[in-house]
Amino acid sequence: MEGESRTQKALVKAAIDMFQQKGYQMTRVSDIVAAAGVAQGTFYNYFRSKEMIFREICNDFMEQVRARFVLRTQHMFDGETSDEVRENLHAVIRDVFTIYQENLAVAELLFREGIGNGGLFKEIYEDILNLFLDLIREQVEKGIAKGFLHIDDPEVAAVFLFGMFERTLFYFLLVRKNRDMEKLEDKLADFILKGLSFEG
Amino acid sequence: MEGESRTQKALVKAAIDMFQQKGYQMTRVSDIVAAAGVAQGTFYNYFRSKEMIFREICNDFMEQVRARFVLRTQHMFDGETSDEVRENLHAVIRDVFTIYQENLAVAELLFREGIGNGGLFKEIYEDILNLFLDLIREQVEKGIAKGFLHIDDPEVAAVFLFGMFERTLFYFLLVRKNRDMEKLEDKLADFILKGLSFEG
Amino acid sequence: MEGESRTQKALVKAAIDMFQQKGYQMTRVSDIVAAAGVAQGTFYNYFRSKEMIFREICNDFMEQVRARFVLRTQHMFDGETSDEVRENLHAVIRDVFTIYQENLAVAELLFREGIGNGGLFKEIYEDILNLFLDLIREQVEKGIAKGFLHIDDPEVAAVFLFGMFERTLFYFLLVRKNRDMEKLEDKLADFILKGLSFEG
Amino acid sequence: MEGESRTQKALVKAAIDMFQQKGYQMTRVSDIVAAAGVAQGTFYNYFRSKEMIFREICNDFMEQVRARFVLRTQHMFDGETSDEVRENLHAVIRDVFTIYQENLAVAELLFREGIGNGGLFKEIYEDILNLFLDLIREQVEKGIAKGFLHIDDPEVAAVFLFGMFERTLFYFLLVRKNRDMEKLEDKLADFILKGLSFEG
DNA sequence: TATGAATGAGAGTTCATTCAT
DNA sequence: AATGAATGAACTCTCATTCAT
C-alpha cells in the first residue's frame, strides 16, 4: 500500500472511477489506462488482469473498512441512560455514514458488482456482507443482554438493520445525490429504536 | 403479450434462466438459443437485440407486479384496533413475500442488474424503486393520519421499509436459500412497528 | 472427414500452406483466414484455437499415413531370392517416398514443428516417430529371422533407417527441391542392404 | 569473443538454456534476463535484438565446431588394412559423438530451430548442413579412391550418413536420454560399412 | 418462420524494444 | 554499464448481429 508508485496509484484511481461510471464489465482496460494517462501495456506491469485490479481494490477497501467498523460498532448500544444509548447509536450511525461517504466510490462499486456479473465477485460481496452482519448482530446481542432491547432474534434484526443502512445510503447518496445526511442519521436512529412507533 | 408463440415463450423463459444464472453481461445470445432449443438466427425474429429482450422481461414483470402491489399495499396500515393493524400489516408482508417468491427469478434479475452494468438498466431499476417507495409512503402517510404511526418523515420511512424488505428477501432467499418465510414475516412486522423496542 | 464443409476445407488447406511457409508460431490466424478467404471469426466456428487446427491436421495425417505405412512396410524384406528381396525393399522405398511426396506439406510441417516450439507438439512428433520406428523394427526382425539380414540390434537399425529416410527426403525434396527420386530409391536400397560396401 | 564481460557471458549462457528449454519463439527476453540475473534493459547493451543473440550463439558454435570437425573427419576412412579402416571410422564416430555431446545444448538448439520457425534461421541451418555434407562427401570420395568403398554417388551417401548421425544422436540423446553412446558407436560403424549386411 | 454459417469490430493480453535515470 | 518502468503494435479470441437459404 505504502510502496505504490505514482503510476500504480493513478491506475487504481482511474479503475475505481471507470468501474463506478461504467460498471466492471463495461469498463475496458483501455478506459482505465486512458483515464490514468499511461499506455495500454503499462496496466499489465502492475496488474495481471482486469479482474485482479478489481479484486485488489475490493480487498483494500475491505481491510480498511473492517478495522474502522470494528472500532465504531463497539459502542452501538452502549450507555446507562436512555439518552446515552440514543446518543451512542447516533454517533455510530454518523461514523458509519462518514466511512461510507469517504469510500463512496468503492463502496458503491462493491455493492453494485458484488451482486451482479453472474457471481464473478459473489464471494467478495458475501464476505463483506457477513462481516457487517456479524458486527451488527454482536452489538444487538449486547443490547439485549443489557436489557435495553427487546427482540428475540438478533440475527434477523441484523439483516433488517443492514438492509436499512445499505439501501438508505444507496438511495440518498447515489440515486438522489444531494441529501442532508444529518437529519437522516436522526431518523435512522429513531426508526432503529422504535420502528414506526406504533401505538394501537 | 397474449399472442406470444411457443418459440417466443421458450426464448423468454430461457433468457430469464440464463440471465439469472450468469448475469446479463455473461449471458450470450447463444446460451439463450441453446436453452430454448432454437437456432441462433431465430432469436432475432423475435427480439431486436439482447438488450431488448432484457427490457421486455423487466417491463412485463413491472406491469404484472405493479397491479398486484397496488392492491396489496392498500391495506398496509388499515384497521381500527392495534391487533387489526398488526394483522393487516402482517397480511401485506405475506402478500409481498409471496409475489416476490412467485417472480423470484425476474425479481432477483432486476435487482441485480438494475444497479450493476454501469447504469445500462438504471432507469428500469429506478422506475420500480420509485413505484415501491411511492406505494409505501402513501400507506405510511395514511397510518400517520389515522394516528397509529408517530413518525415525521414518511418518505424516509418508506426508504427504510423498502431497504428492509428488499435486502431481507435478497439475503434469506438468495444468499441463505432458507425459505421459511413465515417466521420472517412476524419479525418484520414487529420490527416495522416497534424497531428494536428500545426502553431506556 | 467426409462431412467437412467447403469453408472448413479451405481453412485446413490455408493453414497447411501458411504453417509450411511461415512455421506454426509465425503464422497468424489472420494469415490463415486471409488465405482461405473468410473472415477472422469464421476460423473459430471450426476450430477452437490455432493450436487445435494444427493438432487436427497432424492427427488426420497420422491416421492416413499409419494405415498406408502398415500395409507397405509389410513386405519390406520379403522374398526368397536375393533379387526378390532387393526388389521388395525397392518397392517399399518407392511407396514410402510416394506417400511422403503426396503429403509433402503436412509431412514437412510435422517434422519441422514436432521438434521445435519448445515441446508444444513434442508428443505428436514422438508418437509418429515411434510409429515409424516400430514398423521398421518389426520388418528388420523378420529379415533377421529369415536369415537375410545379419545385424544384432534391430531397434538401433530402425533408428538408422528412419534417420536416413527422413533426412534424405527432407534434404532432397525440401532443401534441394528438384531431385530425381527414382535414382535415390536405388541408392537407398543399396545402402540399406550393403552400407558403403566396405571391403578391406 | 575474447573480450566478453561477465554479464555478456551470463546472457549467452542464459539464452542457450532458455532457447533449449522453451524454443526460440517461446523464450522471452525477460526469461533470459531473469536467468542471467540482470535487468531487462541490460540485454540491449549487449545484443541488438533477440534474433541477434540467437545468431551469435549459432555462429560461435559453427566456428568452434567447424575447426574440430575438419580435423576429425580427416581420417574417416583412412587406414591400410580392413581393421585399420574400421578402427579409424570408429574413432571418428566417437569424436563426432563427443563433440556433439559437449555442445549438446547449442547443437540441439540449432537443429531444432534451424528447420522450424518458418525459415527464420534456415540459412544458418543450411550452412551447417552443407558444411557437414561437404566434409563427409570428401572423405567418402577418398575411401572410394582408395578402393575401400564401392559406391557410386558420394554426395548421396553423405546425405545418408549425415541423416543417420543426426537422427541417431537426436533420438538417443534427446528423446531417449540414453547416454550409453559406446555401443551405439560400434553399431553405427558397422552399419556404415555394411548396411544391414544382406546376403541373398 | 426457421436456420446456422459468416461476419468483423473490439476485447484482453503479450512482449520486444526504448530511454530517462 | 546498468536499470526497469513505460511503451504500443500486434496478437488471439469472443460474440452480437446479419442474411442467404
Any chance you could write out the topology, listing elements then pairs?
The structure is a homotetramer of 200-residue chains.
Chain A: H1 6-22, H2 29-36, H3 40-46, H4 50-73, H5 82-102, H6 104-115, H7 122-145, H8 154-175, H9 181-194
Chain A binds a DNA duplex (21 and 21 nucleotides) through residues 5, 7, 28-30, 38-45, 48-50.
Could you please describe the fold and organization of this structure?
The structure is a homotetramer of 200-residue chains. With 200 residues, the first copy, chain A, is mainly alpha-helical. Chain A has 2 domains: 1-47, Arc Repressor Mutant, subunit A; 49-195, Tetracycline Repressor, domain 2 (Orthogonal Bundle), CATH 1.10.357. The first copy, chain A, has 9 helices and no strands. The first copy, chain A, has helices at residues 6-22, 29-36, 40-46, 50-73, 82-102, 104-115, 122-145, 154-175, 181-194. The longest helix of chain A is centred in the first third of the chain and has 24 residues, at 50-73. Chain A is elongated, with a radius of gyration of 19 Å. The mean pLDDT of chain A is 87. Chains A and B meet through helix 5, helix 6, helix 7, helix 8 and helix 9 of A and helix 5, helix 6, helix 7, helix 8 and helix 9 of B. Chain A binds a DNA duplex (21 and 21 nucleotides) through helix 3.
Q: Give unreliable regions of chain A as ranges.
A: none
Oligomer: homotetramer
Taken from the alpha-carbon principal axes, the silhouette of chain A is elongated
The CATH architecture of the largest domain in chain A: Orthogonal Bundle
Helix content of chain A: over 70%
**CATH homologous superfamily assignment of the largest domain in chain A:** Tetracycline Repressor, domain 2
Instruction: Tell how many strands the DSSP assignment of chain A holds.
Output: 0
Number of domains of chain A: 2
End-to-end C-alpha gap of chain A: 56 Å
Give the H and E element order of chain A: HHHHHHHHH
The largest sheet of chain A, given as strand count, sense and whether it forms a barrel, is: none
Largest binding interface between chains = A-B, 61 and 60 residues
Strand content of the residues of chain A, in percent?
under 5%
Stated plainly, the CATH topology of the largest domain in chain A is called Tetracycline Repressor, domain 2
